[in-house]
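Quick one, probably user error.
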């Protein structure tokens, strides 16, 4: 049994664009035609493939087909570009990637300039959750802390991002200067990126040897996170490369000299013979080798 490529492309468009109507506009057909194609594909597979929600989401059975649809589309675009050769004029290849916020704000963005003929669609999430978008077929590649390859993907270790526990001088004097670290980390206000972010709790546990529940602020943007620490909203784990200049200038204080948290990062991407993904992988590995710790 083979899958109808038109039905597959239509299903992938529904998920990518979020609705049957949006997919119909992109494909230049009626919403009724989109619905008929998706239903026909579901009959072939014998499973419901998409939840008719706002936006539409693939079911567990639909996720592999979303990924397959994206892979077919990528390979078709590359083959068409090669066939056209010097004629040019082809649309840029679009590549969707998910990256953790600190990498995106730091070493990752310059990678994109290495592929001037690619249109990037960037997503961001906590490094412990970025692989979920890869499983769902929503992205082609991910910077993730997950070292086990997602089905259908290659995985490459990039290195480790080192974090330092820092606070403003005033916050340090108020909460840490005259207290045992175990006591201070248990009660001092802390800043987290979002509710998925467990790095601060991991570090506090390493210092206190127990789970703690201090007052917590959530600041979901890398630059704003660091600025909130500088302003004294609370302490937080800041990438070493960002923290060092502030430590040298006295804008921040290292709360636990000699202690740090290393977060291993991996690059996972579709296992395809794709020139674009190969070039992107090479650029990512090169940038990570300069920016991340190897041990």
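Nope, works fine. Designed sequence:
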């Amino acid at each position: 049994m083979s899958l109808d490529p038109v039905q597959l492309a239509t299903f992938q468009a529904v998920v990518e664009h979020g609705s049957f109507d949006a997919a119909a506009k992109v494909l230049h057909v009626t919403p009724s035609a989109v619905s008929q194609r998706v239903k026909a594909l579901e009959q072939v597979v014998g499973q419901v493939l998409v939840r008719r929600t706002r936006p539409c989401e693939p079911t567990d059975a639909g996720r592999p087909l979303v990924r397959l649809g994206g892979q077919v589309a990528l390979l078709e675009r590359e083959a068409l570009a090669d066939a056209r050769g010097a004629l040019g004029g082809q649309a840029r290849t679009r590549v969707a990637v998910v990256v953790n916020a600190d990498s995106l704000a730091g070493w990752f963005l310059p990678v994109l300039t290495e592929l001037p003929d690619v249109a990037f669609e960037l997503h961001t999430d906590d490094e412990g959750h970025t692989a979920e978008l890869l499983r769902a077929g929503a992205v082609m590649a991910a910077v993730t802390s997950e070292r086990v390859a997602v089905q259908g993907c290659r995985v490459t270790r990039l290195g480790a991002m080192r974090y330092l526990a820092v606070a403003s001088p005033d916050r340090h004097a108020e909460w840490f200067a005259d207290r045992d670290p175990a006591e201070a980390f248990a009660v001092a206000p802390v800043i987290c990126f979002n509710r998925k972010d467990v790095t601060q709790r991991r570090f506090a546990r390493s210092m206190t040897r127990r789970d703690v529940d201090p007052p917590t602020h959530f600041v979901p943007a890398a630059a704003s996170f660091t600025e909130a620490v500088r302003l004294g909203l609370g302490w937080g784990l800041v990438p070493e490369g960002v923290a060092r200049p502030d430590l040298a200038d006295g804008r921040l204080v290292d709360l636990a000299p000699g202690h740090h948290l290393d977060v291993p990062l991996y690059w996972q991407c579709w296992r395809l013979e794709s020139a674009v993904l190969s070039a992107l992988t090479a650029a990512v590995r090169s940038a990570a080798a300069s920016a991340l710790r190897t041990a």
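Residues 199 and 237 are 7 Å apart (CA to CA).
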